[in-house]
Amino acid sequence: MSTVNEPALKHLLRRGLDGDAGAYREFLSAASRILRQFVLRRLPPEARGEAEDVVQEALLAIHSRIYTYDPEVPVTAWMRAIARYKMIDMLRARGRNQTLSLEDVGDLPEPTGANLDASITLRKLMSALPVRWRVPLELTKLQGHSIADSAARIGSSKAAVKSNVRRGLQALRGLLRP
Amino acid sequence: MRKRRTEQLIAQLGSSPPEYSRSYTSVVLVGSAVVALSVVLLFSLFWLGPRTDLAEVMSGQQPVFMLKLLFGISVAAGALSLLRDLAVPGRRVKHAALIVTAPFAILAVLGLRELLSSPEIEVHEHFTGSHWLECLWQAPALSLPVLLMFFAVMRRLAPTDLLFTGAAVGLFAGGLGVAGYALHCTDDSFAFVAVFYAAAVFEMALLGGLLGPRGLRWA
Questions:
Q1: Is the ipTM of this complex over 0.95?
Q2: What residues of A are in contact with residue B9 (Cβ under 8 Å)?
Q3: How far is CA B68 from CA B26, B40, B56, B135, in A?
């Protein structure tokens, strides 16, 4: 869909920056099409769901940092570089937030000896917790699901899951203390 | 649905085209550089204190003093033009990278020539008894405020290669730092400058490169 070529895009931007709101909107719309295509082609398959977010971030940056636009640089190269930066930023943040799922980890060693005791104690203690704390705790800490994932499973919000996990941990700590 | 939100965003942003000035990036960088230079001068004169014969050597009869100043200023100037390239997404770094390396190359040649032409006994006199340790921490100390300031400045622009940009900020700060340190430093040998001034600048470039990926993120 890159029917808009560089000179046409440059022309739209120039008119937009001279105060023609219609031209500016047309420029943004053409930019969004170019960037969507650019981002979709580069994101790894498992991250394609975030493509539209990257496009929006890039559009916002184009708008708020328009002063870094340099007429010597092709407009398309400029906006692609911005989208690329936003894409990398998103992938990094994703990498940080992602928790490993059990499938990724493979078979965990069976608990033995002291570990086994600890594992039994932990489960016993956890069964004493109210359901609203225990379930989020099990999902996130024992089964290794992400907060978002667990929230979706329980059908509650991420904030609720987070705070219930925290309360559950606090209660556990209270139970462990003699 | 997400695509519809993009349409809404375009409608919202499109209703008010932003102000644009072509020279904004250059003006911001040069303006900040002037402020940075004054900060370094102030710190150098009031914290380190000028060398006692400053007026004398300033009159131009001391080639090593002139070289120190010239080295620091030209590294900073080259790094500033590098930053100008790096602040603009999609802009290629052209000659700026070469301009930055030139002062180091010239300095290395001058230093080596001096060492090779002096008798062996004199060689280590270029270093022992010198204030090399002071040079290695006081020059970077002068650079540090500049580094912090330019991290803030670059975050307002749009660097996309944060590691390289961090290193360039470090070079700029380091260049100004050694120029400021030159007003205080009394080790007047080409070899000394070639080793320790260059090392002080490298320290800052390394620091900038290390901090860049985290410190330069912009949203």
A1: no
A2: 56, 59-60
A3: 26, 15, 15, 12
